[in-house]
Amino acid sequence: MKSPAAKKLFLMMVLEFFIWGAWLPLIWGYMLNPVDKGGIGFSGSEVAWVGSAFAIASVVGIFFSNQFADRNFAAEKFMAFSHLVGGLAILGMYFVKDFNTFFALMLIHSLLYVPTISVSNSIAFTHMKDAQKEFGLVRMGGTIGWILAAWPFYFIIGNKVGADAIAARQNIFLVSGVASLLLAFFSLSLPHTPPKPASDGEGRFAWLRAASFLSKPFLLVLFIVTFIDSTIHNGYFLMAEGFLGSKVVGIEQKWIMPVMSIGQIAEIATMAVLGMVLSRLGWKTTMILGVLGHAARFAVFAFMPQNQTMIILVQVLHGICYAFFFATLYIFIDAAFPKDVRSSAQGLFNLLVLGLGDLAAKWIFIPLQGSLTAKDGSVDYHSLFLWPTGLSLAAAVILVIGFWPPKELEAPADAGH
To answer: Does pTM surpass 0.85?
Structure first.
């Protein structure tokens, strides 16, 4: 990383995803489990509402928060304010156990946190000398931050039960909130990234101008594929844990997260070589490989469910799935959209990655799995996983046929050197 600000940008990403990684893996058990098993006993519908807060925030953010970051506020000050108020909100969740207050605080946190994912990308791209080469290394900090938060909590308190576990699991909100406040103050030291008011003749609403670029066929195709791939990506996290712990695969509960974490380690390695891959293969081939990573992983799930070794080894494809598609997507958005709407453009695609894709996964794969579950509780995993395999192949075909960015957007040949 040759940019003078690269170390600060890396640390920004570490803290950005540490906040999320601290609470996400354990919040579901905390909400669902009764008090005697270390939870607060929310109903399934209440848990669903809390789980939808990120999706709601991704929709709202594109109209308001990302608009402000593009047009009205310096990005680093937007980050500072968002993480200050969002951090106080999630700290509040440490103290409450009733649903209404708990949901309200999660919604406030989400409304302020979700847009910072797009804004942190925009800050990084603004201050990197070579985005194709450096973004993978900078964004690798996010994966490291997630691991630093999620792994210790999971292994220390993830399997605790009883009333004492409530106090232990509450700490996820305390740690997440403190990290958010740290990032709020750290954001003030980030390189200045001023807003970019609309020029004469341009629309005042950055989100509307960003959306207007979808009239370009190659961006519309990318938008459609991003929705499909986001649905598959979120579907993996909905289905993988139950599949790995089923009688078919037979992985013990305590080893499920370590097995899934193989993908996160692979993600770090893949991020490190992303610049080189982009320089040699270009946008299109790199993204196609990322989408096909999902197809290969789900094909192994569908056709080799009893081969535990293969099921474990195929987790390394997560690195390719994420870095080669999603990280490349963020780099491409920065190259394809004008500077004055880049936060809104990032938010427009994050609307799919964090919002609509997540909702679609829940509405498609949860009912589908239910329809393929027998009375004895066994699941027809072969039929289940053929669906995401087919969707991945369809998305790859759409990219092959319809994604033809103009030559001026080609990744430079020396991007990875």
So the answer is: yes
Strand partners, 373: 379
Q: What residues pair up with 379 in beta bridges, in sequence order? A: 373
The distance from CA 40 to its chain's CA centroid, rounded to whole angstroms, is 26
Residues 223, 324: Cα–Cα separation, whole Å? 16
3-state secondary structure of 298: helix
Q: Which tens digits make up the pLDDT trace of 52-65?
A: 898 888 888 767 66
* 56 contact partners, CB below 8 Å, separation of at least 6: 107, 110, 111, 355
Q: How many helices (H) and strands (E) does the chain have?
A: 17, 0
287 and 325 Cβ atoms separated by less than 8 Å = yes
DSSP state of 33: S
pLDDT tens across 75-89, in order?
899 999 999 999 999
Give me 251's structure tokens.
């992985």
Nearest-angstrom CA–CA distance, 258 and 3:
34
Cα dihedral 377, 381, 386, 387, rounded to 10, equals 30
Contact between residue 339 and residue 71 where contact means Cβ atoms under 8 Å apart: no
Q: Find all residues with CB under 8 Å of 38, minimum gap 6, and list them.
A: 29, 30, 160, 161, 162, 163, 164, 165, 166, 168, 169
Between 1.10.3720.10, 1.20.1250.20, 3.40.50.1980, 3.10.20.30, what CATH number should domain 1-195 receive? 1.20.1250.20
Residues 396 and 288 sit within 8 Å (Cβ to Cβ)? yes
Fold category of 213-417 in CATH: Growth Hormone; Chain: A; (1.20.1250)
Reading phi first (left if > 0) and then psi (alpha if -120 to 50, else beta), residue 196 is in: beta
Closest CA to 80 of 119, 131, 44: 119
Do 282 and 413 touch, CB atoms closer than 8 A? no
- From CA 398, how far away is CA 390, in angstroms rounded? 12
Contact 231, 361 (CB under 8 A): yes
**Measured distance CA(267)–CA(233) in Å, rounded:** 14
Percent of the chain predicted with pLDDT > 90: 60
Q: Where in the chain is the domain with CATH 1.20.1250.20?
A: 1-195, 213-417
